[in-house]
């Protein structure tokens, strides 16, 4: 089986997207799937570093469209999509794939769908948050996603949101995301229970916006410090919400007890989480939290004891009291109580972390993710052979 992967231009830069994509491609090749790779139009950046492993795989690139400057400024997405479609058609004729797989962002599906129809090739599209929200991908992207042979959603909640937004392909497959780091089933690199006696450390990684629940975490920390004066919090995040977060920290009187690292790559954030006693993920319920944070997966893989809100995607991933602790989403008191319970019962931290690492190793490794994609490819191709194609 030969699959043509349509990737974002970020695949050729040293980004988390590139590392995750290459990890998936490596696992797919290990399972006997031939992969062909095409990147979308890249933004003009002469200083960008090329991180694609050219000595291992070839990457077909899409050159910038040769159109007048005024047209590029007026319709940048349309010009880039047309350039990607023309390039994709040439690569299809050259490599003769059995199937086209469009990775996130799903906006590239608008360029891949007409090529797939013209070449009578099955089309698999990776759903992202913009597709579920019905914004950011445009009418052509929605049209293409709805007519793909299969749409890959990372969670049941994402599938429900896709259907609610009007996207109804014949098959929406649930393909849970994989962790960026290898599962650490031994606690050799983790701090011992004695390390937290004097100054226990909480850690959070992710966005700093309101749906991520960082404000709720600061409020719970303020409550906990009445009895635990040395309790600290490390926030691995950054971006546009930094100034607001720092103002909140000062207003809560937590200066000196909360450290914000700024933006970190996924693997660096995972290293930060591994040094904490408890990893906290207090996301609020809503459309912005349809999938579990990749930082949560990485923390579990690192063997961290996890406290997370009981939103649906967290309940699907964690077993309360076994591989993590869940609390009522949005409840300041419930979060403080869950943290206080673990801080008082330190002997539970190691079993929680080991159970979380085993869960990730068994069901959220890149080998498991590749096996799910392989089965999806095989089912789509079988439908095409039997004349049951949905689009």
Number of domains: 2
Count of helix runs: 15
Distance between the termini: 21 Å
Shape type: elongated
Q: Helical proportion?
A: 40-55%
Which runs of at least 5 residues are low in confidence (pLDDT < 50)?
none
Largest sheet: 7 strands, parallel
CATH architecture of the largest domain: 3-Layer(aba) Sandwich
Highest-level CATH class of the largest domain? Alpha Beta
Within the CATH hierarchy, at the fold level, what is the topology of the largest domain?
Rossmann fold
Into which percentage range does the β-strand content fall? 5-15%
Oligomer: single chain
Structural class: alpha/beta
- The CATH homologous superfamily of the largest domain corresponds to Glycogen Phosphorylase B
Question: What is the count of β-strands?
Answer: 13
Provide structural commentary.
This protein has 391 residues and is an alpha/beta fold. It has 2 domains: 2-178 and 365-385, Rossmann fold, CATH 3.40.50.2000; 193-363, 3-Layer(aba) Sandwich (Rossmann fold), CATH 3.40.50. 43% of the residues lie in helices and 15% in strands. The chain is built from 15 helices and 13 strands. It has helices at residues 16-30, 69-74, 76-95, 109-119, 129-133, 138-146, 156-164, 214-224, 242-251, 266-274, 294-301, 312-317, 332-344, 349-363, 366-385, and strands at residues 2-7, 34-41, 59-62, 99-102, 123-126, 150-153, 172-174, 201-205, 232-236, 258-260, 278-281, 305-309, 325-327.
């Amino acid at each position: 089986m030969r699959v043509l992967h349509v990737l974002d231009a970020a695949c050729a830069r040293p980004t988390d997207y590139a590392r995750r994509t290459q990890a998936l491609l490596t696992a797919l090749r290990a399972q006997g799937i031939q992969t062909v790779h095409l990147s979308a139009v890249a933004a003009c950046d002469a200083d960008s570093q090329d991180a694609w492993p050219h000595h291992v795989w070839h990457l077909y690139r899409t050159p910038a469209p040769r159109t007048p400057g005024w047209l590029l400024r007026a319709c940048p997405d349309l010009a880039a999509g047309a350039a990607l479609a023309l390039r994709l058609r040439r690569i299809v004729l050259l490599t003769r794939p059995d199937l086209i797989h469009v990775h996130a962002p799903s906006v590239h599906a608008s360029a891949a769908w007409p090529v797939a129809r013209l070449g009578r090739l099955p089309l698999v599209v990776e759903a992202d948050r913009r597709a579920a929200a019905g914004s950011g991908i445009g009418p052509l992207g929605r049209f293409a996603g709805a007519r793909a042979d299969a749409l890959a959603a990372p969670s049941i909640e994402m599938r429900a949101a896709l259907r609610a937004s009007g996207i109804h392909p014949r098959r929406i497959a649930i393909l849970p995301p994989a962790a960026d780091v290898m599962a650490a089933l031994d606690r050799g690199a983790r701090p011992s229970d004695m390390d937290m006696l004097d100054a226990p450390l909480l850690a959070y990684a992710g966005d700093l916006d309101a749906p991520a629940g960082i404000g709720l975490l600061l409020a719970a920390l303020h409550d906990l410090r009445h009895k635990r004066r040395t309790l600290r919090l490390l926030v691995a995040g950054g971006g546009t919400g930094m100034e607001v977060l720092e103002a909140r920290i000062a207003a809560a009187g937590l200066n000196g007890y909360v450290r914000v690292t700024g933006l970190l790559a996924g693997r660096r954030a995972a290293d930060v989480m591994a040094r904490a006693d408890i990893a906290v993920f207090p996301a609020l319920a809503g459309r912005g939290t349809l999938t579990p944070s990749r930082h949560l997966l990485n923390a579990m893989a690192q063997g961290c004891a996890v406290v997370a809100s009981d939103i649906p995607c967290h309940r699907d991933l964690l077993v309360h009291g076994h591989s993590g602790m869940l609390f009522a989403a949005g409840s300041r008191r419930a979060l403080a109580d869950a943290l206080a319970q673990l801080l008082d019962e330190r002997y539970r931290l190691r079993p929680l972390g080991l159970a979380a690492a085993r869960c990730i190793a068994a069901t959220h490794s890149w080998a498991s993710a590749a096996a799910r994609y392989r089965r999806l490819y095989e089912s789509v191709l079988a439908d095409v052979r039997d004349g049951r194609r949905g689009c």
